[in-house]
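Subject: Sanity check before I submit

Could someone independently write out the structure tokens for this chain? I want to compare against mine line by line before I put it in a report. The sequence has 275 residues.
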Amino acid sequence: MTSIRKVLTVAGSDSSGGAGLQADLKTFEEYGVFGFSAITSIVTMDPDQNWHHEVHPIPPALVEKQMKTVLSGGQLDAMKTGMLGSVEVIELLHHMIDKQDIANVVIDPVMVCKGEDEVVQPENGQATRDLLLPQATIVTLNLFEAGQLAGMGRITTLNEMKEAAHKIIEQGAKHVVIKGGKALRSEKAIDLFYDGKEFVLYEAEMLDTNYNHGAGCTFAAAIAAGLAKGNTVKESVAMAKKFTLDAIKQGFAFNRFVGPVWHGAYHNAHERMSN
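---
Independent answer below. Compare away.
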């Protein structure tokens, strides 16, 4: 192993292991890249209150110390974001990306925890739009997040997805991928990729399962790992789609509230990973 690719996740911690930085690090390992983490918040889920989520932000000064630790090892090959905890952390990350000149930046704006309807830290949306989208190699969004960042509200059709993608590119992102999911009311699982010039549809079978906790984090982490290994953005998205689909197929019940994806599924199913 003469050249180990290094990838940083700046994200929240999910103690149930399916999402957040835990999902990111597992995905990085499966891709054969070395993962670093800076924890921005700790999310707890209460089994005595119907799995109610609480977000506990990490002080920005401590997040900065974590980043300093990571960056002492030299240049990163890619990084991704997840739940960022506060506007101050978003500002800190913005300056870090600018100073370090990181080539591959995947922004995954986590706005809602799975199983919850309330927007997590709504004040972070505007800061993400203003500071991080212009630095993004690619932004990965579900329909809700795309509607929020594009200022469109609820998105339910492919044409609305295209409109949202166009608006988000106008805000500075180089590429965007919007995940259709079940809310798109399609027989296929459709993801829409846009680079400002061309729309590309990635279609797969729609799986009837609730064992998909962490799918969004896993998808974004897989894109970051693919970029770190030298793949193009389109290649990274296509492979991430397959990786995440296999992970969902082999998801399992953690408890009566949640079922995470299985991050080792792609390697087990195909017994191959790109160099």
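---
OP: Matches mine. For the report I'm noting this point. The chain has a mean pLDDT of 91.
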